[in-house]
Amino acid sequence: MDTVALDYNQDGRMDYVGVLQMEGSDIPLKTPRILFALASSEESGYRLDFQDENLIRTRDEGGVFGDPYVPLTAGETTFTTNAYGGSAWRWSEAYTYAYRDGGWYLSKSHTTYGYGPMITSETLDDYETGVGIRRERRSDIENLENLDSDEFDLDYQVRLDAPPDIVQAGKRWWLSPDRLTDCPVKTITIADGIDLDRSAITLPLDGAIHYRDENVILYTFSTPASETNYLACYQEYGQSLTVAAQSTEEMPNFDACLAYKGKIYYAMDVTALVHLRGADQTSVPSMDTVAQKLFRMNPDGSGKQELFEYRIAAPGETIDDEYLPYLSMSCEITGDEIILQVYVGGRPHPYYRMDLDGGNVREISFLPDEN
User: Global pTM?
Assistant: First the structure.
């Protein structure tokens, strides 16, 4: 469906990067598209350099906008995949891959999200310099047209790890779990302290996948017989599955699950009984999320550590409001550093950076509330 010509192996003959798409009226819109490269070869004409089904959005991944595909572009030894979609809220993606030392590596990326022409979130990664830029502004739709398009409420940099090769980049992409068709399991382990019958374990494709990379898949599942949630780690290389953590009555839900350099990171809600006092001054008891905690552990469930806590209420506290704000965490880990956003409904959202062990916590800034 698309092709660009470039001499990426520098032998004086044209090579090609392209995208294949299955055609036919009965082909599902979610069928993966195949990104591939053909390298010129003096002996055989051309050889297949790589093919990957994780890197191109499918026809149904553009939202209301429709097919998000935007044609490939190419440089001398680079090519860029492009996509655009959404509806009133729109997004764009551009990922540039560079050929060096006989392989393809992610070189640069640029993603945006915003309302109409106004960008509210922008990410730029340059693996040549090792620097990533993150920009955010409040999503105040009514006043977006009055905002300076060059001004962001939050603008900070992160250190990038070494550039991933094209296979790693594909498996780390947040949409790659949708391409999974098979996760064979050879061994199953249940971590110490988890009371769960092996027959009640949900396999990866039947659970809620939160994270995937070239090594692991992290997903959650629950059992019909209880309200307990479980966090499982599937390692593709050994086809091994470990149920690594479980929820409790105090910490019922998993959030922000990801893996980095042999460790699993995740957040959990902390619930407690509080008393909410509305405008009529009547105090009503309510079981609510009063905090979120960030944890780290080994893939086998051992070595669990609490790294960070963000709390908005104490157990038993009386709150002069009819409800507590919604609370959630999101994480990015890069350059041996955790970047943590705490979303607090109706309040400014704090951003922090810290070491991998939770030490040296520094506040980056706050993203103002939409209102």
Answer: 0.93
